[in-house]
Amino acid sequence: MFHDLKPLVNSIIDSNDTTESKLQKICELLKSKIAYYDWVGFYFVNGDKKELKLGPYAGAPTDHTIIPFGKGICGQVAESNKNFVVPDVAAQDNYIACSITVKAEIVVPLFKNGKNIGQIDIDSNTPNPFSEEDERFLEYVNEKVAQIL
Ligand code: SME
Question: Alpha helix (H) ranges present in 34-131?
Fold first, then answer.
């Protein structure tokens, strides 16, 4: 599955769209092709503030358009620079609920020139759906995105 998705990601990256539109299409691609990806979005560091700002996303609108560093899964990844896989969101103390249907989440940081400038965030309504293959694939997506930022 991920193997077949990579060329589709590449063709979006290489297209003539705006960067904003490319990121939007990547979110929609991942959400539509991966059954257990129910919300897919990018957050980016908001200028020189210690907070994340929501970028393009696919799925239900969220109130959490700004997330301070350290808060929730996303805010923790902004500081740790490490992938965060949450098989069961109910077991997390430092978690920001976007929807009661969400059971699991994965957040993978996005590096540009070695700097953590944002992340891709996936919510799933399926419990414990993520494997290392998701991590490797999302790292690939972020590396591609970093090239156009
Ligand atoms: N659940 C995230 C907040 C963002 S929403 O999932 C879109 C968190 O705990 O950081």
Answer: 72-80
Per the listing, tokens 């301070």 go with 68
Residue with the smallest CA separation from ligand 1 atom 1 is 96
Give residue 3's pLDDT. Answer: 94
Q: For ligand 1, atom 5, name the residue with the nearest CA.
A: 98
The percent of residues above 90 in pLDDT, for the chain, comes to: 97
Look at residues 124, 54, 46, 51 and name the one whose alpha carbon lies nearest to residue 85.
124
pLDDT at 63: 93
Which tokens is 59 given?
Answer: 């799925």
Ligand 1 site residues (CB inside 6 A) read 39, 41, 62, 64, 67, 72-75, 95-96, 98, 105, 121, 123
pTM, entire model:
0.96
